[in-house]
Amino acid sequence: MNRASDVRNPLQRLSALLARLPGIGEKTAMRLGLSLVRADPEYVQALAEAIGSIHAQLRFCSVCCDLCADEVCERCRDPKRDRSTICVISQPQDRMAIDRAGVFHGLYHVLHGVLDPLSGIGPAELRIEELLRRIAAGEVHEAIVATSPNVEGDATALYLAKLLRPLGVRVTRIASGLAVGGELEYADMNTLQRALADRRAL
Amino acid sequence: MNRASDVRNPLQRLSALLARLPGIGEKTAMRLGLSLVRADPEYVQALAEAIGSIHAQLRFCSVCCDLCADEVCERCRDPKRDRSTICVISQPQDRMAIDRAGVFHGLYHVLHGVLDPLSGIGPAELRIEELLRRIAAGEVHEAIVATSPNVEGDATALYLAKLLRPLGVRVTRIASGLAVGGELEYADMNTLQRALADRRAL
User: Fold this and answer.
1) Among residues 113-172 of chain B, which lie with CB inside 8 Å of chain A?
2) Tens digit of pLDDT for each residue in B166-186?
3) A36 close to A43: Cβ distance less than 8 angstroms
4) Where are the alpha helices (DSSP H) in B70-127?
5) Class of the CATH-defined domain B3-57
6) Cα dist from B158 to B16, B124, B145, B164, B195, whole Å
7) Is the CB of A33 inside 8 Å of chain B's CB atoms?
8) Domain ranges, ordered by start, for chain A
9) Domain A77-201, CATH class in plain words
């Protein structure tokens, strides 16, 4: 109703900007805006600074294409990491999830997406060229394709396997099946089909 | 694991700051941080600017204590509003909700909280002094107490009624009962009790 007159209001303006973030609706945006009004000024300035400088401070690692502050990210610089294994992932969050699992000590390669022809994302939109260059350098023995086990992720994995195998590298795919700790009764049909098909000898 | 080394990372720093907002967990914060990395630079700068300047730009209306950009808010300045009725609310969001309903044309008064002795919030922490001053000025005939119908909101309403009635002002309370469009079957016990007790003649 008085929307037009409210645009001048700094709180309305802030919450309209916050509402453009993914998963933040109008009400949540207003709640966040009000919490910023009430928050410690030092924190609010630090947040504004961190947001304002994020584009200037972040770039893509020239090796693995992950987001980082330097020319080469800390993982790619780490001499303790196994350089013969590359885990290919679609986005930076996936690297964090795998790091949290704490069992992978090789290097990563971030594609920044998966093949999705319907959304106009083909091989040229992904960081595949960079991956081929790394593999061609000869140090890599295995590429673990860890895209999500859905239609686009599986298609991307198959595409990469076709591309990488001729380069003499072993291409593997992360396993799919029932979640550990989950109940078989509640597993969805597709997962159960995959879990049965990929059964292994005990 | 590599948390300590990640603090240098601007993305980790940004998402740690975002995670301090209410209702934003670590994963959501990282998702928001990454969405800012990918967002239009113009938008990101506007957001940083809006956050950074919110404290400097906002103040409390000297009449109704609502948050606004000026000395007196647009509602209190609006000559078309009915100055004889004041709707007393606990927070700015409640004013927005009532505005959306589009049936109230009087003025507001924002308490910025409700009485909550367990959290150390007594009358001195709320904008009650300012409300008394407005009422004492003599223009107000009715104060509608529209705090939420829970323990603290009801207690605040009773407290205000005691305080305001001697000033010769009519004090009313917004109605409680079944939500319009809701199902009686699913109403909670307390609401149903209130709906029965407050039944009105047809």
Assistant:
1) none
2) 999 999 999 888 888 878 888
3) no
4) 74-77, 92-101
5) mainly alpha
6) 42, 16, 9, 10, 19
7) yes
8) 3-57, 77-201
9) alpha beta
